[in-house]
Design a protein that fits this description.
The complex is a heterotrimer of chains A (305), B (608) and C (305). With 305 residues, chain A is an all-alpha fold. Chain A has a domain at 93-303: MetI-like fold. In chain A, 79% of the residues lie in helices and 0% in strands. Chain A is built from 14 helices and no strands. The longest helix of chain A is centred in the last third of the chain and has 39 residues, at 214-252. Chain B has a domain at 343-593: P-loop containing nucleotide triphosphate hydrolases (Rossmann fold, 3-Layer(aba) Sandwich), CATH 3.40.50.300. Chain B contains 19 helices and 23 strands. In chain B, helix 3 packs across helix 4 (126-139) and helix 14 packs across helix 15 (493-505). The longest helix of chain B has 18 residues, at 188-205. Chain C is mainly α and 305 residues long. In chain C, helix 2 (34-51) packs across helix 4, helix 8 (178-192) packs antiparallel against helix 10 (207-243) and helix 10 runs antiparallel to helix 12. The chains are: A mainly alpha (305), B alpha/beta (608), C mainly alpha (305). Chains in contact: A-B, A-C, B-C. Chains B and C meet through helix 1, helix 12, strand 19, helix 13 and helix 15 of B and strand 2, helix 9 and helix 10 of C.
Chain lengths: 305, 608, 305
């Protein structure tokens, strides 16, 4: 078990660094970052100056290992745009995004899992059709548009919740709903198909033949098995919430990492973008690691080979 | 003796997208307490659905009705689902299933799964339930039962899991035990042990038992009564002795003649032509009429009457008297290898070691699948390679086909090392036929393409020549030419296996390697395929390596036999000698597990 | 134990029943699947609109009219029958812009889904067929790709490289191949272990011949299903990028961009935001319904609604 966790952890770390390398290469090779910083109309002299100033004239490998060396000591470089250490910028704004992501996940869980479970237990009933309708619609709604519609609805027509800012818990209600809604289809469908599969499994039939039915059958024989894949998908979704915060935060004016990402992209602030990509990747792999460990704890087939 | 179970006119239909599948029709069964009833039938006969209907375990899309369903005098349909679950399922009727691998919940311990029902019902306290579970595991022959309670299902073998299932069912002391194909998924030598265990337990506890099986021999040996099902109907039932001694329904008669068994000299099997009719629109007359050799015009227009003598023997047939059963079977027409025939394929000192790891970083493990095996296949002979799952027989087959390279040793084809032969040239030496006809044909290709594929790969001839070759091959395996443009999904299992054989023969190879070619098929279809192999030997002097787990099949078709056990060949010789005087203990065990009818009575006697 | 029989028809030759060909079953199921028919109808309609946009649009989508700015749709007060759905802040006919917007969405959707298909299917088939270290390497690549914050990286790349329709297609495509990979890898593994593949290699078929002749035909239906879903996902991705200002640039009519342009005035002129959103919703829901439908239709059990 410990060995399993250790190896998974190592793999996760490897993934995070691969991601950082990929992002670094894409951002530096696909186009000239100096050109992007300087803007389209800049003269070659200006571009050359920028290149020299940010050390962009050094070879790619030197720059990557320089960056990597910095990361290992907690130094992510200095922002081109804000002229502050990137690490400081990110830590200052992380709270909002963590709050947003976690509350969005809560919204997803509260909507998707009961809906998926009810649909699975009553296939082809009205609730199953309703759940399918919710999934299909939520999948098709552009997330940013849903946000704007919420703002129009709650900002103008029913002003219960504030539509801009991050000062109180109330400010997070609408953004969390919007961000959470985007994960509902995936989680709901998986809950539904997983539970349908488990309820049709041979071991559930065995339990029925021993006289189990209704809630005890579900709780004692189906729930844990059906939950295993859901845990993994929730981890993936939570990891993606951080990336998804870009849109939600910019619409609801939340001063978190997503907004920082948008601002730093529009300001061609490559060190900040790079750190954010790295941080989001780390969050993703850590979430998956936690899911793996939870799965191993719940599933003896993983725990005891 | 009191009546334990009385079912009258049970109908089950399944609603599928294409209509209503009338899977069980008009089934009447009864059982006295302490008695055992065997229900026999091929796949799709409705035997399992009958049991599931009794246990209220039918799938959601099923409708079930019966004019009477009484258990110990209690009217079952009158009970609510909750009352049925509380009073009947478990403490009165217990059930064990076919797949011990999936019938236990993988995430909970054996102990929890065994004790929970008794505890939840308040029948036993926790410690008492535990004690009882240990006793029962011990009784079902599981070593170190106390330690097992803390283990998870995946840590046990298939046979052990089935023992756990049996012990678990007995925790609630049911009055009736339903065993639905309890041994089909297990190795032959384990099958016999489990069936004996069930039989002993039934007598010890004076339980009623319903044993469902596709294997008439298994049922006949261990049941007081037997019901034969076909196409959703019970076409014949009575005491086992009566039904076996004087089978009256043409289907039962044919079935008995189709089962290979060890008594008497090998002969042609009584294959039943055709396939089971679709149950979406069951025929108006007798369900067996389309395949019946004794069909009269009335058979297809009117329901056959129930005939026979009271409770001991009844059957559904239009004929006034049961047809005469043929005493003897035709002799085989193919002949074996002549002495001194050359080796077509020879494996010498072959060892295969597999290295596996669990996941990316798991510890390495070595499995020695084959250990210094030498085997040669001579021109014109049928060599049977017999063994159980994990014995290495399929690994050896792959190596002799040239599909995988052994760790040590070498394979020669007509004296040439297989490594020097190109893929397409090898294809004209040897071709495979696999076990599962559902996976051996590409579902997206038409039969004409499938059969012609080896020729295309070899670059043989033009389109017209290939078409001729395909038609010849279809003819050889007795497939009608109108199926040329059909897809595999349109064929029955037996037809698919014929296609696989046609594809194997189209390049006119020197030898076939058939890996359990009939074990996924129903007995009546198995008989068709085994007879076909006999025909091919007579017509083209087929050389064949036949891999099987069934001694009766060996007896039926093989000239020579090699017995594999744990990666080694433990015994080899002419089939007649090995079967008559097995030298190795394992061969004896395999022989004991093979079906034979009571006291090796030859093929059934004449009725009346 | 029940045989879940295929559909049967009577065979005229011998009176016995004879199963339908896969093609016949497919056609029969298609016309029994309401969800699929609705989705396919929507997609067909939108594709036709995109093709015949010049004939359908009442105005030039780029023609500005300062005298006719921010006109409401014709059913509101002050609506002008010349401009059925009103005009935007530059006085351009909104209906014509929405009609031309189909071209951007459809082009990018098809293009990006194809790019993703080529990458994902190639990797998936290789991983599934060859296994071993190739599979490990590709699986690692998959994990790394999943850990990448896709939207963030796409934004940064489009910004650095410079926005154009081809850049958006390339980047969205390169970031959306995981679903293809996961499905084709699993399917290839399953097919590879089937006996007909062993039979082909026993007949001397090379890996290339096995992949093209035996495996690909069996992957086709799932690839089409994923393509349909990815079409919707890519369209949403483009609209998000354009909404954030790092996708399609003005004055090209893209629905996402139109929402962004309408955002400033959304409290007073909500149709500027609502209408393009509804267009996006209809297009994506069409793709998703079609995908769901195709999955039901091509699955062996043929789960019908």
């Amino acid at each position: 078990m410990l060995r399993y966790i250790a190896l998974r952890g190592l793999l996760a770390l490897l993934v995070a660094f691969t991601v950082s390398l990929a992002a670094f290469l894409l951002l530096n090779v696909a186009a000239d970052p100096a050109q992007a910083i300087a803007g389209e109309d800049a003269t070659p002299d200006v571009i050359e100056a920028i290149r020299a100033r940010y050390g962009l004239d050094r070879p790619l490998s030197v720059r990557y290992f320089d960056w990597l060396g910095g990361v290992l000591t907690g130094d992510f470089g200095e922002s081109y745009y804000w002229h502050k250490p990137v690490a400081e910028l990110v830590t200052d704004r992380a709270d909002e995004t963590i709050t947003l992501a976690l509350s969005a996940l809560a919204v997803t869980i509260v909507i998707a899992i009961p809906l998926g479970a009810m649909a699975a237990l009553n296939p082809n009933s009205w609730i199953d059709r309703f759940a399918l309708g919710v999934a299909v619609s939520a999948q098709a709604v552009p997330n940013f548009w849903l946000g704007l519609i919420m703002i129009i609805l709650f900002g103008v027509m029913v002003p219960i919740f504030p539509v801009s800012g991050d000062d109180s818990w109330k400010h997070f209600v609408l953004p969390a709903f919007v961000l959470g809604a985007s994960s509902v289809p995936a989680v709901m469908r998986l809950t539904r198909t997983g539970l349908i599969e488990v309820m049709g499994a041979d071991y559930v039939r065995t339990a029925r033949s021993k006289g189990f039915r209704g809630w005890p059958l579900l709780r004692r024989h189906a729930m844990r098995n059906a939950l295993l894949p859901v845990i993994s998908v929730l981890a993936v979704q939570l990891g993606q919430k951080f990336g998804g915060s870009v849109i939600t935060e910019s619409i609801f004016a939340i001063n978190g990492l997503g907004r920082l990402a948008l601002e730093s992209i529009l300001g061609a602030d490559i060190p900040t973008v790079q750190m954010l990509i790295f941080v989001f990747a780390i969050v993703f792999v850590v979430m998956n690691l936690i899911a793996d460990i939870l799965n191993a704890a719940l599933d003896p087939r993983i725990r005891i080979g | 003796m009191s009546t334990l179970l009385d079912i009258r006119n049970l109908h089950v239909s399944l609603n599928i997208p294409d209509g209503q599948l009338r899977a069980v029709r008009d089934v009447c069964l009864s059982l006295d307490s302490g008695q055992s009833l065997g229900i026999v039938g091929e796949s799709g006969s409705g035997k399992s659905l009958t049991a599931l209907a009794l246990m209220r375990l039918l799938p959601r899309a099923a409708d079930c009705r019966a004019t009477r369903m009484q258990f110990q005098g209690q009217d079952l349909p009158a009970l609510s689902d909750a009352a049925f679950a509380r009073d009947i399922a478990g403490p009165r009727i217990g059930m064990i299933f076919q797949e011990p691998m999936t019938s236990l919940n993988p995430v909970y311990t054996i102990g929890r799964q065994m004790t929970e029902a008794a505890i939840a019902r308040g029948m036993l306290s926790g410690p008492d339930a535990r004690k009882k579970a240990i006793d029962l595991l011990d009784r079902t022959g599981i070593p170190d039962p106390e330690a097992r309670l803390a283990q998870f299902p995946h840590q046990l073998s298939g046979g052990q899991r089935q023992r756990v299932m049996i012990a678990m069912t007995l925790m609630l002391d049911p009055d009736l035990l339903i065993a639905d194909e309890p041994t089909t998924a297990l190795d032959v030598t384990v099958q016999a042990q489990i069936l004996d265990l069930l039989d002993d337990l039934r007598r010890e506890r004076r339980m009623g038992m319903i044993l469902i099986s596709h294997d008439l021999a298994v049922v006949a040996e261990r049941s007081d009564k037997v019901a034969v099902m076909y196409g959703g109907e019970v076409i014949e039932q009575g005491t086992s002795a009566e039904v076996l001694r004087a089978p009256a329904h043409p289907y039962t008669q044919s079935l008995l003649r189709a089962i290979p068994h060890l008594g008497g000299p090998p002969g042609r099997l009584g294959a039943i032509p055709g396939t089971v009719p679709s149950l979406l629109h069951p025929p108006r007359g007798c369900i067996f009429a389309p395949r019946c050799a004794h069909r009269l015009p009335e058979c297809t227009t009117a329901r056959p009457p129930l005939r026979g003598t009271g409770d001991t023997h009844r059957y559904l047939c239009t004929l006034d008297h049961p047809p005469q059963v043929r005493l003897t079977s035709d002799p085989l027409i193919g002949s074996g290898a002549v002495d001194g025939a050359e080796d077509v394929i020879a494996a010498s000192h072959v060892t295969q070691v597999f290295q596996t790891r669990k996941g990316l970083f798991g510890p390495k493990r070595e499995i020695r699948a084959l250990d210094d095996v030498s085997l040669s296949l001579r021109r014109g002979e049928t060599l049977a390679l017999i063994g159980e799952s994990g014995s290495g027989k399929s690994t050896l087959a792959r190596i002799m086909l040239g599909l995988s390279v052994p760790t040590q040793g070498q394979v020669t084809m007509l004296g040439r090392p297989v490594s020097e032969i190109s893929g397409t040239e090898r294809a004209s030496f040897v071709q495979p036929v696999f076990q599962d006809p559902y996976s051996s044909l590409n579902p997206r290709r038409r039969l004409a393409e499938i059969i012609a594929r080896p020729l295309v790969l070899r670059g043989d001839g033009d389109a017209a020549a290939r078409k001729r070759a395909v038609e010849e091959a279809m003819d050889l395996v007795r497939l009608p030419a109108r199926l040329l443009h059909a897809y595999p999904s349109q064929l029955s299992g037996g037809q698919r296996q014929r296609v696989a054989i046609a594809r194997a023969l189209v390049t006119r190879p020197k030898a076939l390697v058939c890996d359990e070619p009939t074990s996924a098929l129903d007995v009546s279809v198995q008989a068709q395929i085994l007879n076909l192999l006999d025909d091919l030997r007579a017509e083209m002097g087929l050389t064949c390596l036949l891999i099987t787990h069934d001694m009766a099949v060996v007896h039926q078709v093989a000239d020579r036999v090699a017995v594999m056990y744990q990666g080694r060949i433990v015994e080899e010789g002419p089939a007649r000698n090995v079967l008559a005087n097995p030298a190795h203990d394992y061969t004896t065990r395999l022989l004991a597990a093979a079906p034979r009818f009571a006291n090796d009575a030859p093929v059934p006697e004449v009725a009346q | 134990m029940t045989s879940t029989d295929q559909t049967f028809t009577a065979d005229p030759e011998d009176g016995t029943t004879f199963a339908l060909t896969p093609g016949q079953i497919f056609r029969r199921r298609i016309f029994g699947h309401t969800g699929f028919l609705i989705g396919a109808g929507l997609i067909l309609a939108i594709v036709l609109i995109a093709i015949f946009a010049p004939l359908l649009a009442p105005h030039d989508p780029y023609a500005q009219s300062l005298s006719a700015r921010m006109l409401p749709p014709v059913w509101s007060d002050g609506g002008n029958p010349d401009y059925l759905l009103g005009t935007d802040q530059n006085g351009r006919d909104y209906l014509s812009r929405l009609i031309y917007g189909t071209r951007v969405s459809i082009t990018i959707g098809l293009g990006a889904a194809t790019v993703g298909l080529l990458i994902g299917v190639t990797l998936g088939v290789m991983a599934g067929y060859f296994g071993g270290w190739i599979d490990h390497a590709i699986s690692f690549l998959l994990t790394a790709q999943l850990a990448l914050p896709g939207l963030l990286l796409a934004m940064a790349l489009v910004f650095i490289i410079g926005p154009s329709i081809w850049v958006v297609i390339g980047i969205v495509g390169v970031l959306h191949w995981t679903y293809y990979l996961v499905v084709t890898r699993a399917a290839t593994q399953r097919i590879r272990s089937q006996d007909f593949v062993a039979a082909a290699s026993a007949s001397g078929a090379s890996p290339r011949q096995i992949i093209w002749h035996e495996i690909m035909p069996n992957l086709l239906s799932s690839i089409i299903v994923i393509f349909t879903f990815e079409l919707g996902i890519a369209i949403l991705a483009e609209s998000s990028l354009s909404f954030l200002g790092v996708g399609i640039q003005p004055p090209t009519p893209s629905w996402g961009l139109m929402i962004a342009e309408g955002k400033q005035a959304m409290f007073y002129r909500p149709w500027l935001v609502v209408l393009p959103g509804i267009c996006l919703f209809l297009l994506v829901i069409g793709a998703n319904l079609m995908g769901d439908g195709l999955r039901d239709i091509t699955s062996p059990e043929g789960r019908n609604e």
